[in-house]
Design goal:
This protein is an all-alpha fold and about 130 residues long. Helix content is about 65%, strand content about 0%. The radius of gyration is 14 Å and the shape is globular.
Length: about 130
Amino acid sequence: MIIRKEIVAGLNERLSLNYTGQEQDWDLELADPNRITDFLNFIRDQNLSIEEKYAVMALVLSSYDDRLNYNPVSVADNEIWYSITELLNQSPEIYSDLLNYWALWNNQREEYLFAITKLVREYLTTFSAQL
């Protein structure tokens, strides 16, 4: 799903992001590992459209990838990942292309993977086995 500019503009205001309008990869450029919980609560607490949910989840996954890249893994990370997967489980059809982007199925060499790739692959494998 392509995130439309109107969706991004509205979310920027509601989430108080430093959006300039020049971002090409909004979710990657405005990712914030320190705000993952805020973003997750926003998805839970707001009455969002499918496009808005998708966009905020893109921001969540990008932020979590940044967190895994720059901070040591901790128990808090497991709790955050659990919260992320709970939201993914509520509407898996919305997020399939987003998750497949992070899964990088065509890459097997570890140096080409995102920090979040193994978690996403495990999630997708486990989730599809439950269907």
